[in-house]
Design goal:
With 137 residues, the protein is α/β, with parallel strands linked by helices. 40% of the residues lie in helices and 16% in strands. It has 2 domains: 30 residues; 92 residues, Nucleotidyltransferase, domain 5 (2-Layer Sandwich), CATH 3.30.420.270.
Length: 137
């Protein structure tokens, strides 16, 4: 059986355009997912230094409370007052008695502003609120 020369020149090729499209879609997905995850951490709050800061709990239900330089309370990117914070924390504690809270106080704010937030958390039923700091270099 003799093969024709035209049939022997047949080559298998991989289409690169759909492959490149999928790579770009995956890249965009991971960039967007990472951006949403960092939204709370990128508030304009300058944390105080500590010699042994601890990581924030990986618990998905953790409440992150930011206290900016002027003493404003920010939760979820929204400025709230003390009564709203108390209602929020009390509601979460009713749903989950083991609720975790991280308080991120700006190093330039008065200590009384951070204590006010900690007091609200303790009164609402949080057993051990966590104070977020960064490592001093």
């Amino acid at each position: 059986m003799l093969l024709n020369a035209k049939e022997a020149d047949f080559r298998v090729s991989i289409e690169l355009i759909p492959l490149i499209d999928m790579v770009f879609l995956l890249l965009i997905f991971f960039l967007v997912a990472t951006t949403f995850h960092q939204e709370e951490r990128e508030m304009q709050v300058a944390l105080p230094y500590a010699s042994s800061p601890g990581p924030i709990s990986a618990n998905l239900r953790e409440i992150i409370i930011n206290v900016d330089r002027e003493g404003e309370i920010i939760v979820g990117g929204r400025t709230i007052d003390a009564d709203e914070l108390r209602e929020l924390v009390e509601g979460r504690v009713k749903l989950n008695p083991e609720q975790k809270v991280a308080v991120r106080g700006d190093r330039g704010t008065a200590y009384a502003n951070v204590v006010r937030v900690l007091d609200i958390c303790k009164a609402a039923g949080i057993q051990e609120p966590y104070l977020d700091t960064i490592l001093e270099e």
